[in-house]
Write a structure and sequence with these properties.
This is Phosphoglycolate phosphatase. By secondary structure, the chain is of the alpha/beta class. It is 40% helix and 12% strand. Helix 1 packs across helix 3, helix 1 crosses helix 4 and helix 3 packs across helix 4. The protein is elongated and about 55 Å long.
């Protein structure tokens, strides 16, 4: 599909931005409301990555407190309210993100975000961080009828951005991202500095990078491996 621009689809938390401090702050606000002690930020990498509701469930489990499912939506509303009021107290883009976007854009790439954050929250964070305008689509847990790791979340994000799966690459930091990309048959680059309780290499992404300086080469290599039929050979 020579007339279709290449697209890089990014996860957000732990991939584009270091957000653990603010997310854990919101979780600890919710835990404190139940009389539970705060969890340290260094536990974030084993708790984050599946959205706010999953974070609350995992936080209560880590604190040893059962959580009745009927309470979840109320706790999630409190979590969101606190988080949105403190959305970038500590959050920042990872080193090299903007320079990498600049280089890829100069080569003709477009960008999108597929996250398990709520869409409005994701857009607000990226606006505060100064990069929202770089993305053709910013899609969250509530954008479509499905969310990651369902492949439709990624495929619908690609479609909304005006791209095609055959000319797209996913960039993420967790098993959720890698499983999503594999199910959608889109190659995936994993960063090794994000939020995962196991080394990201364990989940067999197509490439692993330790800094955004290496993203351009990884994406170009995966794009170059497209077959004449327009598909890309990647790890099963």
């Amino acid at each position: 599909m020579p007339d279709t621009f290449p697209l890089v689809v990014f996860d957000l938390d732990g991939t584009l931005a270091e957000t653990a401090g603010d997310l854990m702050g919101a979780l600890n606000h919710v835990l404190a409301g139940d009389g539970l002690p705060p969890l340290p930020v260094d536990q974030a990498r084993s708790l984050l990555g599946a959205g706010g509701r999953a974070l609350i469930r995992r936080g209560f489990a880590s604190a040893g407190r059962p959580l009745a499912e009927e309470r979840l939506e109320g706790l999630f509303a409190a979590f969101l309210a606190f988080y949105e009021a403190h959305i970038a107290d500590h959050s920042h883009l990872f080193p090299g993100v903007v320079a990498s976007l600049d280089r890829l854009e100069a080569q003709g790439y477009a960008f999108a975000v597929c996250t398990n954050k709520m869409e409005g929250t994701a857009k607000r964070l990226l606006e505060v961080l100064g990069v929202a305008g770089r993305f053709r689509a910013i899609c969250g847990q509530d954008t479509f009828a499905v969310s990651k790791p369902q492949p439709g979340a990624l495929l619908d994000t690609i479609a909304l951005a005006g791209g095609t799966p055959e000319r797209s690459v996913m960039v993420g930091d967790s098993r959720t991202d890698i499983d999503t990309a594999k199910a959608a048959r889109v190659p995936v680059v994993a960063v090794d500095f994000g939020y995962t309780d196991r080394p990201v290499q364990d989940f067999a992404p197509d490439r692993v990078i330790g800094h955004f300086d290496a993203l351009d080469e990884a994406v170009a290599d995966l794009m170059a491996r497209r077959s004449p039929e327009g598909t890309i050979a990647f790890k099963a």
